[in-house]
Amino acid sequence: MKHVLVLGAGQLARMMALAGAPLNIKISAFDVNSGNIVHPLTQQVLGNGLTTAIEHADVITAEFEHIPLDVLDVCEKSGKFFPTTQAIKAGGDRRIEKSLLDSAQVKNAKYAVINNRDDFDAAIEYVGLPMVLKTALGGYDGKGQWRLKSAEHVDAVWCELAQALQDNPNQSIVAEEFVPFQREVSLVGARNASGDIAIYPLAENVHTDGVLTLSTAIDEPALQQQAATMFEAVANSLQYVGVLALEFFDVNGELLVNEIAPRVHNSGHWTQQGAETCQFENHLRAVCGMPLGSTQAIRATSMVNILGEDQVSDSVYALTGCHVHWYGKEKRRGRKMGHINVCAHDKAALKESLLELSELLDAQAFPALKPAALAL
Ligand code: AMP
Q: What residues bind ATP, as annotated (predicted)?
């Protein structure tokens, strides 16, 4: 029996616990907001503080990147923390992420870092318009972002950027060229301490208002090869141990990295039913020093996120190839409440199933599903 302490007590820790049980890997979770150690499935407080939990754990890992630095420091000092603090910091700070990508020689959007008005003017000159501006710290799912389309809006946008910089003295803004991509894809893979790497098929992702709504595993060898090379460069440069996700823009078949996520990823949830070994099991295998499991796709699979709903009709449960995963969270507007993995024997059948599912789900709550299924 191995005991893994996960920093973060959300759905990703929950799904690690579910995947770890057959391997005799026991998970407890550190709820960063309350400071409690909790059971990842029931959220029941387990009663011991972080220091004791660190002592009792064989391995420590994380389910998200916005972890207070003091917590990260004590975990690092224990010598039990994987992937690495550097990887977590790169996932939580766009400045570190960008310089990591540059040093690993991995293509990403042209950018500049802004700390004051002079930097902003220089960034407009260097990066050009239109541009996308993102807070270096604390941004996720498209939050903490601005679009600057033309020179007439420079002053108005600057007012908002100046406010964000003033609110947090450690904050910077990263200005990025606007990338005219055709679609967004992501690659999830695992690396263990021996340097073995196992990579899943790419997923094609559809976002609605900056939030992932649909992910479909794709089989495109040339693109897969390109993404895998970038994955290896990033994972090896970080001496990464665990599951890592890279999000890309696909610009006419050329990939640019948009973001790295040093953890199991929403666009990898399809692996629970669509791959030989799911991403949660492979993360645990990697951090526990075990051999990695096969990442091969076993059938055509898509994942549909359930946002702001806490029930679906019985006909969804009755649909062949449909697997519903709830996170046990309190219902809130737009909140990720669960997901549905939809599996079929081939792409055409998957399209049929997704169309059937889109008829059973509320079109307002799942706006992307039908058009995305039609486009498959
Ligand atoms: P992010 O939080 O960086 O993943 O950005 C959220 C979404 O904004 C992405 O999924 C893209 O759809 C869009 N986006 C981010 N950066 C850019 C960019 N440089 N050019 C065009 N669209 C972008």
A: 94, 134, 139-145, 176-179, 184, 207, 258-259
